């Protein structure tokens, strides 16, 4: 009771009608489908473009490393120039300057 003699009436519980439950279910289905589409398109973005070699291991650039030395060490059976071109394509490098500590994707060794 409250001062003044009026009883305190608890607020009624929220009850969903059949239409309300259908609306809530529809909302969650739309959200779930949207998330699925976004995640699927994000995973497709990781697929290599045609003509770009598939990425293999990674290498961290050392203090005196060059793309040529990394290419020679990574795939000695191939021409270093071809491996350097693949490394540049995989890492979207416009030039051939790399910095110590930089991580590079390497093409799969053949």
UniProtKB/TrEMBL annotation:
Source organism of the structure: Spirilliplanes yamanashiensis
Keyword field: Membrane, Transmembrane, Transmembrane helix
Superkingdom of the organism of origin: Bacteria
Record-linked PROSITE patterns: LYSM
Ranges annotated as spanning the membrane: 22-42
Family annotation (InterPro entries): LysM, LysM_dom_sf
Name of protein: LysM domain-containing protein
Domain LysM: 57-106
A Pfam family: LysM
């Amino acid at each position: 009771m409250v001062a003044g003699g009026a009883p305190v009436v608890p607020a009624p519980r929220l009850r969903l009608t059949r239409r309300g439950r259908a609306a809530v279910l529809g909302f969650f289905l739309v959200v779930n489908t949207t998330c699925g589409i976004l995640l699927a398109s994000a995973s497709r973005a990781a697929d290599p473009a045609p003509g770009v070699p598939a990425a293999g291991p990674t290498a961290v650039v050392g203090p005196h490393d060059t793309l040529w030395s990394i290419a020679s060490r990574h795939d000695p059976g191939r021409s270093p120039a071809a491996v350097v071109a693949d490394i540049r394509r995989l890492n979207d490098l416009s030039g051939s300057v790399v910095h110590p500590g930089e991580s590079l994707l390497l093409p799969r060794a053949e």
